[in-house]
Please model this.
Amino acid sequence: MFDSLTYQKRRKALRDKMSNGIILILGNNEAPANYPDNTYKFRQDSSFVYFFGHSHPGYAGIIDIDNGTEYFFGNDVDMDDIIWMGPQPSVQELAAQVGVEKSFPFDKLRDFVGKAIAQKRAIHFLPPYRYDNMLLLEELTGIKASMTKHHASLELIKAVISLRAAKEDCEIAEIDKACNVGYEMHTAAMRLCKPGVSEQYIAGVLDGIASSYGRMVSFATILTQNGQTLHNHDHSHILQEGRMMLTDAGAELMNYYCSDHTRTIPVGGKFTSRQRDVYGIVLACHDKALELARPGVTYKSVHLEVCKVLANGLKELGLMKGNVEDAVAAGAHALFLPHGLGHMMGLDVHDMEDLGQCYVGYDDEVQPSTQFGLASLRMGRRLQKGFVITDEPGCYFIPALIDKWKAEKLHTDFLNFEAIEKYKDFGGIRLEDDILITDNGSRFLGEKHIPITFEEVEAIMNE
Model:
């Protein structure tokens, strides 16, 4: 947790952005894995953490916009709880820790919201993503659980995003720490990447590193020698000489701030000439994004410039042809890069995406595209100082997609399918770092930069 004043300032800033009524922010509850007492590792709602600080299950907060009063709802533990969990702070003490003076048992939340509804006051809540909170909202408001997302307050969504998007100094310091753990995870993967080692073993080691430094991994670890599958959570293979291992992994600290990095490395510690050719293109794309990312430019424009670097490199390899500008405008390069350049990051690894990606990564100025590949760009809006975003270009050879486009004769003016066929056994490469938008540019997050050049990667793999 940060100091009490941090949360008080955040709640006041939120209140000042809203018109009238009450703001209801629900925390999360425990989620049973296979029976009630055996739960998944608890994960608090990020907006609740942002405004009310606490990572305990079973709490809710209310901010009264009209009179500036704040309320904290939860239940004190009883003797049975103390026997199993030990002594716990009272709800009143927890509320005081984040500067909230008024606290009540959780069942009083129903009375509070019911009174506000009777007075025809606006009830602002964020879109729920857990079914128990959907059911709770139905109980509190009378809105059917299946419809609660549709009745979430757009005014509140936009206000929360406007506050959480630009990171405070205390948040940046935490993300730097999370990226330090990411460094430990990825350098461990590099040292373990040997022929005959199982993907599952390395993935397990990385998950353990994340847990040893913080709460857990920031998302399910992607570690595979079949990198052509973008989110490959299958760790069932044994590493083979001549293949490449793609590792997309990050850590989540005790206060929930995240890291998210990707490296793709040669099994056995030495790049082949063909791997160097493609890797060099992706690395150039990665570096181009870092060069261009700065306040005032849209990340969509950065993405498109990176796509031109990719297309030009593939043209030099004989895999693409024609005018590079026209190829990117047509979306021909998306055969190799069917995803976007990056996304926001912070308390969530895909920060605030529970609030609606069209509001997080886009705005009235920059709207999502419907073009294949570009439609998957999660972050397109104009960059501001304090934004934390990922820089993650890639180049993938997806046999099913290649076959589909070839059969449909798509973009034949720009794609050399005869040459592309020879790369269907290649896999995929992605290189990802977390970057902070600064006063006049951007910088990597974390004290140490994970090895990324040919020389750096081969050196650490062959220590």
